[in-house]
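INTERNAL TRANSFER SHEET
From: sequence group
To: structure group
Subject: PurM-like N-terminal domain-containing protein

Please process the attached sequence and return the structure record in the designated field. Keep the field labels unchanged so the import script can parse them.
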Amino acid sequence: MKVQKVRDLTLIDLDQEKTIVVACDSCGGIGMKEYDVLKVSPFVTGKYTARVALFEILCSGAEVVCLANTICNEMEVTGKKIIAGIEEELEEAGIGKIVLTGSTEENFATFATGFGVTAVGIVENKNLKVNNVKQDALLITIGKPKVGEEVLKSEKGGIAGYQLIKTLLGSERVYELVPVGSKGILYEANQLAENNNMQLVLHSGIQIDIHKSAGPSTVVVAAMEEALFYQMDLPGSIEVIGMLRHVKR
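Return from structure group:
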């Protein structure tokens, strides 16, 4: 059995035709408990933490088959609110609640909110969009980098959404999709170039902040055929940031 690590993904060969894809995320100090730093409903904590792991799996081209939540708090009331947030995110992603499983902390009192999530997906190898850039590609960003209270105040139009991701995944001319988290757009673009043995060429005059944290994957970087981009009418906050080019030997 072959296991490999690519970015934040673990890829496990299931057989010659399919791959298991695993991703995870965690969140601490965000909730309504005494020592939480950012005071928001645990519902929000569950929703956006689940979003990170779901985006990682879906952007790889895989179908989510399990979402495990490890809640470091009691079921009543924190756990139930976190789970409700996860369930809403699954609904927005078009994924049934049947994939959801998890655990809570019932033995000890807790004074800050803690929560982790692990997502597991399965993909046919022909549909796997990981290290999949075989030719020069245009790099675009979908969404705007937001973190903390910015996410809570933002409109949906400023955050990468599931429907657009699914649309892009349906095209062979879209080579790879990478969710952006706390390390920012430039970091993920560099990782994309390195993993595909390509050179990153950034455009001048980029308007979007490529260094800022994108929190719960509010941005996705897409590598795609340049001609396709100009044929598509993509909604939302889209910006061209550069190219991936073959490294000349």
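Handover comment: The first helix runs from residue 42 to 59. The chain has two domains: 3-127, 137-246.
Transfer complete.
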